[in-house]
């Protein structure tokens, strides 16, 4: 008997519960707790057949943690393998999955500093080429490899800081050479996550330093499309900012202007074919921070 069946058997008619088909919704919401920062992120549109890898790809955007740094756990089951499904692990609607950062090469400390948005802490963690910071791994790297290592750390810090709207940290990282065109393993740039979270000041900074509005992630989504679909309270200003950048930068345009413009102003269609502008879920303000050791960490 699965955990889901045990929960359902406690309410209503036991006989009816035993003879009824699986009543778990096809699509549901669950929560993910980033253990290092105590931030809680709701994840919508989850399915029983969703793989752990697919969930990680969602968290790359929703939680702002690159997929290759994520380690997911549910209850006491240990690390969840990428090719397993939520149903396999008996994940229930509203359940909480723990997200941890892999504890190697100093990534945990870097993620904490970037999530906090403190430039003084970031400056001590190997995000600039004049840094004296070393790990057991980095001290054996040759110059070319070491520069690549620093560049990757600077990008990860920029990605996380952009997601959380830490303007001072973003400014510091960009001024010290962080590449705003670098991508996570699923093809997302800092502009993708800044647009997803409606971080207007960070969007402005990233555009100033050469971020592209048309870079596509692995799902074919540009920052413009993400901004269009997520209905933030500041979306009109955000659309205008991105559109003005597109108009002022011919090299950043797609081949067909009408295709780009439709990303901003195009409408969806209802089942009857009539235009619709139904708002997509708003991710801004959806993150909340739990106290250390809070009971909510396990339900």
From TrEMBL:
Ubiquitin-like domain mapped to chain residues: 30-106
Start and stop residues of the ANK repeats: 153-179, 186-218
Pfam families: Ank_2
Keywords: ANK repeat
Keyword Transmembrane helix carried by entry: no
PROSITE patterns on file: ANK_REP_REGION (PS50297), ANK_REPEAT (PS50088), UBIQUITIN_2 (PS50053)
Domain of life: Eukaryota
GTP-binding found in the keyword field: no
Polar residues compositional bias, start-end: 260-270
Region (Disordered): 257-299
Gene3D superfamilies linked: Ankyrin repeat-containing domain, Phosphatidylinositol 3-kinase Catalytic Subunit, Chain A, domain 1
Alphabetized SUPFAM superfamilies for the sequence: Ankyrin repeat, Ubiquitin-like
Protein name: Ankyrin repeat domain-containing protein 60
Species: Hipposideros armiger (Great Himalayan leaf-nosed bat)
Name of the encoding gene: ANKRD60
